[in-house]
Amino acid sequence: MFAASPKASGIGQARGEWGEMADAATILHADLDAFYASVEQLLEPSLRGRPIAVGGGVVLAASYEAKAFGVCGGMSGRDARRLCPQLIFVGGHFSDYQRLGDAAIKVIGDFTPLVERISIDEAFADVAGCTHLFGTPAEIAATIRRRVRTELGLPISVGVARTKHLAKIASQVAKPDGLVVVDPAAELSFLHALPVELMWGVGPVTRTRLDAIGVATIGQLAELSERSLTRLLGPAAGEKLAALAWNRDPRQLKPHRRARSAGAQSALGRKPAVVQVIRPTLLHLADRVATRLRAKSRPGRTVTVRVRFADLKSVTRSITLDAPVYTTVTLARLAENLVRVTLADHPGEKIISLLAISVSHLEEHWDLALELPLGLADEALRPGSPTGMARWAADCAIDKIRDRFGWEAIGYGSTALEAVRSVPDAFRGLAEKDL
Fold first, then answer.
1. With bands split at pLDDT 50, 70 and 90, how would you rate the model's confidence at 29?
2. pLDDT (tens digit, 9 = 90+) per residue, 62-110?
3. Burial classification of residue 117, based on how many CB atoms lie within 10 Å of its CB (0-12 exposed, 13-18 middle, 19 or more buried)
4. Which of 199, 262, 351, 435 could form an S-S bond across to 310 if both were Cys, CB 3.0 to 4.6 Å?
5. Is the pTM here over 0.85, yes or no?
6. What are the tens digits of pLDDT across the range 188-227?
7. Coil, strand or helix: which one is 299?
8. Annotated catalytic residue: which of 116, 122, 187, 432?
């Protein structure tokens, strides 16, 4: 493994010679460090070196100085100030996030056309075909970091490895503002020593389950049989993590990938789990999601909601439809039904801190089939029914007014207050940039 820290003057060698691995370790994962907070510190030099958080009632992002006190994204403003009394809250400059995120990805694109952007502040790149022009992958990664720092004034961490999964882990190990290159001859010793939460797919719930059986490192996870993992985590997650623990990751880069879902979320602080809170919040979220689906003519068949309770435990519920959904009210009603089921399954939970809606299984080509009014129980939720068509017509009229006069010109009255609490679409990243 080669590794460089932000304090290092160059790339130091830990094992092997780069010439031995040039044909293998060519996948880069570049990730701008504490991106939103770093942009705010770039725009306002007086904030540099100070603990800051983007947001207000809820922390959308935190600087490394704030993270040192335990402040993290999704935390309520009250809890963040309790951990860090000197914390400075700033509003988000979303157009600057877009501009600088685009500029950083463009720097990567100067070295290879094989760039897969996965969010506003991170991307994969395959440099196998351009080493004869720009040097070894390690040298390319170092040049990218230098240019992003010099031209944009932002720190960026880069991991280089043989697979996407390992490259992403390497970039996390490199943080803050560093470079880690993993030698294929030493990748398992590198990987197995790391904490299991660095793996793709290991969130808080999975981490808790693994911790309960004494699994703290990726190496300990690798020692478990796939059958044991499947029994603990389910077939899909168990099979995936068993493979990734041994760095078996055949995925290729997808430079022109399209978004597979669209979503929005609203951080509520601590609110009672009552319909007066839930219904307007979901309608607002559905409005933002359905508007994007209609704008690109990409309705979706699977609706998912996420409910986070007071203890920050999250629960998701999904439904897959026979016909794709694209109207605001229909999406909101479906989401409300899912939230109702979630709360019924957790009767002891009386406080919610976040609601989220996403739509997936997006349609590339679809035709709307008109339906006769047959008095079916779910008729109001069917897109081709008279009610569905009326909702479509109303939404199209709203879309046209907003296109001409702006988003705030018209909307659903009960959602007006929710806009200040929801995470803005621009902040949710460019993984959905094609929607």
1. very high
2. 999 999 999 988 788 888 999 999 999 998 887 788 899 999 999 999 9
3. buried
4. 351
5. no
6. 999 999 999 999 888 877 888 899 999 999 999 999 998 9
7. coil
8. 122
Would residue 44 show up in a list of annotated catalytic residues for this protein? no
User: 362: exposed, middle or buried (C-beta count within 10 Å: 0-12, 13-18, 19+)?
Assistant: buried
CB atoms within 10 A of CB 355: 27
Q: What is the DSSP string of 162-211?
A: SSHHHHHHHHHHH-SS-EEE--GGGHHHHHHTSBGGGSTT--HHHHHHHH
Residues contacting residue 329 through CB under 8 Å, at least 6 positions apart: 283, 286, 391
Q: Would you state the structure tokens that stand for residue 398, as one six-digit string?
A: 């709203």
The two three-digit tokens of residue 336, written as one number? 């409300």
Would you say 52 and 90 are in contact if contact means Cβ atoms under 8 Å apart? yes
Query: Does 20 have pLDDT greater than 50?
Result: no
CA 365 to chain centre: 26
Query: Tokens at residue 284, please?
Result: 């607002």
Which domains does the chain possess?
A: 1-185 (3.30.70.270), 193-244 (1.10.150.20), 261-432 (3.30.1490.100)
**What is the DSSP secondary structure assignment for residue 14, as one 8-state letter?**
S
